[in-house]
Amino acid sequence: MRHTGEKPHACALCDYRAVSAYHIRRHVATHGQGALLKCDRCDYTTRWKDHLTQHKFRHDGVRPYACHLCHYATNLTSRLAAHKRTHSDHRRFTCDRCDYRAHELATVRRHMAKHDAVKPHACRLCHYATAYRSHLKRHMASHASGKQYACGLCYAYSTHRRTGIKHHLKIHIADGACATGIL
């Protein structure tokens, strides 16, 4: 039934219809019926036990869902599914202005901002402006007096960017200066 488009299960409280009884049970909970489960460490509440379990992983720092192709791990199955698509050559979302392709629609939308002259994220301290909030955040660190990441092997290198220190430490590893290889 899943691929026919037929939805034989109906909600008794609204017009919602679903392929399976499972989806109806989850939907009915959105109408306020069913026990509300609460996290014992914060104010988070949900009607679904699996959501509460995944939420608690965040408190514990547990990332039980791991990619079998790389070192990526997360506390959410949905994030793991999205990550696994990055290992695929199939990029179904495309930019309509160039040949850029991506696994996620949101990534293509972020990319498309490059084509526009609009740069809504501007630095208050200089003339820098960007289409991306994350780029502005990274730029703002350049105005800070202390650099956040410093090399503990040579003490000669420091940077505002985590990727910069990772790259620098790889040079030490290649030179044999770091026997552990831990970055």
Automatic annotation (TrEMBL):
Keywords: DNA-binding, Metal-binding, Nucleus, Repeat, Zinc, Zinc-finger. It comes from the Eukaryota. It is found in: Nucleus. One of its GO terms (molecular function) is zinc ion binding. InterPro entries: Znf_C2H2_sf, Znf_C2H2_type. Gene3D superfamilies: Classic Zinc Finger. GO terms for cellular component: nucleus. The keyword 4Fe-4S does not apply. PROSITE patterns: ZINC_FINGER_C2H2_2. Residues 37-64, 65-92, 93-120, 121-148 form the C2H2-type domain. Belongs to the hunchback C2H2-type zinc-finger protein family. This is C2H2-type domain-containing protein. It comes from Ranatra chinensis.
